[in-house]
């Protein structure tokens, strides 16, 4: 129970600091809204969708997965700032659970991602997107797991490299192919066979497919359980690895 | 309260392609009694911080033993953590938090319940005269205020021992004097205080006992008075031109009233003599007789720097 208590302690602190800074809340909402308003209108003609709502069904899930991946991967920067300020070392001399130092932070990232996701979904509803609540909740679960994994990995890498200068190019290098090979912006159905072949090895492409299926009301689609399973396994592996980094360098 | 035997730590550093093993701490034996302010004096890079970080469970020793407040450092670092406080050199507060939030969080990280943590935070804020700024963000604090918050963080769980790594480095003289008072107050409250410093006056004025560290080893240990008493007589320091220093050194080396002669950087010589009042005229006559120019001459009672010089052959001021 110490783990749960300590995790909650760190989570509260991190969330409190996040909410105190309205700039971040604003940026976190502003950017996806821009995508929704300025990019999505191109999609109806581009995707040959019969209605704007159909185009949103394809685009919104992709956008949400994109946010989960990127939002998570760049959380490491905050940790490096904390390392530099001595906050992490201050935690290290206390008997606080080391795993809680990671989980509390990652959980904050998951919650802030879900808040973004809800805002975007509500906005999309105004544009006639329709999705069943059960399907939506399952899609949010997928997003939460993605964010948990990417933020944990980002923290783990941040502890290893300990410098923003190394973290930024590293995360960009990882994020870019992941993004392009996941059919986030445009479905990979348009891709030539070889590209689809490569994308099949990208776990996020399965996650995107699964999330799209859920937004489409197609909960029985194999991609749903496949995507969820893959991401669950990866999230567990990511947390395990990052927790080890924490335990090692935050002994 | 602290007892260490043969505590060792080496680091591997990479310079280009070569990896080099640096022995940062080579076998430190310390005995610190309850309720004293114990000072660790030495130049930067002497291994003070490394030793302190080992004692505070932040890095694992390569070898040796240590018992801290009754808990075994190597076998039971978790228990050591509960019994000690540690205040790092580089700061430990978050710009966007307030002092009160930091204190409550710190207490709760030690497992203290919320209501009690809030009570302790309020008490600590008062004790360190921080109540006025308690709910302002840490980034608005002055250096001295921030350091006080950090000390308060280090003792919020009422540890038996608190480790302070260079607590006054970077503070202006007034804040420094304040900090000394705070540290003495910790002792009055019954805490054992272990500080590192490279300031001689700080070690001299603040510490009940000190250990002088150089190149990863303790080269002297005792009360400041004891250590200075080891050097009998007076110390005369003469300032000369760089070229003259060598000549004068040779000139005075053979004089029977000079017990010991140590050249310093920048053309200064330090002479350990039995009686300064009689030695100075003789030194002056000797230099004058050789037709050499003197820039300065001063006489003082042996200081900790003189202790350091006789133990290591270097002055702490110049290293």
UniProtKB/TrEMBL annotation, chain A:
Report membrane topology: Multi-pass membrane protein
Keyword Transcription regulation among record annotations: no
Q: Where in the cell is it found?
A: Cell membrane; Membrane
Q: State the coiled-coil residue ranges.
A: none
Keyword vocabulary terms for this entry:
Antibiotic resistance, Cell membrane, Membrane, Transmembrane, Transmembrane helix, Transport
Q: Where are the transmembrane segments?
A: 21-43, 63-85, 106-127, 139-158, 178-195, 224-243
Q: Where is the signal peptide?
A: none
Which Pfam families does this UniProt record tie to the protein? ABC2_membrane (PF01061)
- The main location class comes to membrane
What family is this protein classified in?
Answer: Belongs to the ABC-2 integral membrane protein family.
Stated name of the protein:
Transport permease protein
Q: What is the lineage of its organism?
A: Bacteria, Bacillati, Actinomycetota, Actinomycetes, Micromonosporales
